[in-house]
């Protein structure tokens, strides 16, 4: 690692410890030429996930958008923010573990509905009504009947 003070190309690691809840490593280094110390952070390189929208356009995956959609579905419901955060993290991890870097938005929507069904059924129906674009009350009732039949 190049020294930020004298630009010498070599340094030694004096101390290493986990940082950012284990997602990176903080290293204290000492320059072998000027003996000044500096800190570096080592993180795993991750490739961005691309979401393929219904219209064919592509955009990078944004966990915040996912979380906001679930928050709207859970409005005035007894679902904690930490639960929704955990669900969003699970979904992101599932998507990262899949070998495909381009994910159809439909896949993400199905994962959200799958998880919301176990968290809160009303939130699930709310999300499904927007996601599946229920046109009228009969399609809404069909989804409710499916939910009741599963019980």
Which features would summarize this protein structure in a list?
single chain; 151 residues; alpha+beta; 3-stranded antiparallel sheet; 6 strands
Shape: elongated
Structural class: alpha+beta
In total, the number of domains comes to 2
Tally of extended strands?
6
Major pleated sheet: 3 strands, antiparallel
Residue-averaged pLDDT:
88
Number of helices: 5
Q: Measured on Cα atoms, how large is the radius of gyration? A: 23 Å
Low-confidence stretches: none
Explain what you see.
This protein has 2 domains: 11-43; 50-150. Helix 4 (121-131) runs antiparallel to helix 5. A hairpin with a 5-residue loop joins strand 2 and strand 3. It is α+β, with helices and mostly antiparallel strands and 151 residues long. Helix content is 45%, strand content 22%. The mean pLDDT is 88. A 3-stranded antiparallel β-sheet has the order 1-2-3, with no helix packed on it. The longest helix has 17 residues, at 81-97.
In short:
The protein is of the alpha+beta class. The protein has 5 helices and 6 strands.
Secondary-structure map with pairings?
Blueprint: E1 11-19, E2 24-31, E3 37-43, E4 50-52, E5 58-60, H1 63-73, H2 81-97, E6 102-104, H3 105-119, H4 121-131, H5 137-150
Parallel strand pairs: 4-6
Antiparallel strand pairs: 1-2, 2-3, 4-5
